[in-house]
Amino acid sequence: MPDPTLSRAIREAYASAPRGVIIYHTLEIRHPTFDTPIRVVRDYQDLEAYLESDAPENPGEEVFFSRFDFDFTKPEISADGVPQMQLKIDNISRDISAALDLATTTTDLVEITYREYISTDLSGPQNDPPISMYLVDVKADVFAAHGTARFPDLLNKRFPTLAYRADIFKGLVRDQ
Length: 176
Description:
This protein is mainly beta. It is 11% helix and 35% strand. It has one domain (8-172). It has helices at residues 8-16, 94-103; strands spanning 23-30, 38-41, 47-50, 62-67, 70-72, 76-77, 83-90, 110-118, 131-140, 144-150. Strands 1, 2, 3, 4, 5, 6, 7, 8, 9 and 10 form a ten-stranded mixed β-sheet that branches. The radius of gyration is 19 Å and the shape is globular. The model has no long low-confidence stretch (mean pLDDT 82).
């Protein structure tokens, strides 16, 4: 069954593999401790492409993706029923390694966004919406960073997410 999130152009490129058309796989890694998101493309050359208009950082802007060798699996259902993907970034730079080390010192999760681009149309990602997941298990050394990314656990999310406290909602306190 075809993926409904993919554009017609990229589905045709996957199906027919036309000469000269390149599919770019990109990752954007975000965390509150990062000054700017880490953006990488799986290719031998750097890439400049436009983000979607509702991107979490730099919406609708042209951004730079650094060339990096990385590998990943598209999201698959794990044994516990939660979709997850495995990823590995080889030969990580000191900047990326330092950023990931800093991120592990906080309780905030590292968010990644996977986007696909096609060389004939870099005006936006060809998967709409792009896949966003959270890194739940990251190990990095001087050679590579390995991680498992999962979708947010919506089943165990507190509902409602707003806590009704007397210091915020004054009407909850009765006058004596």
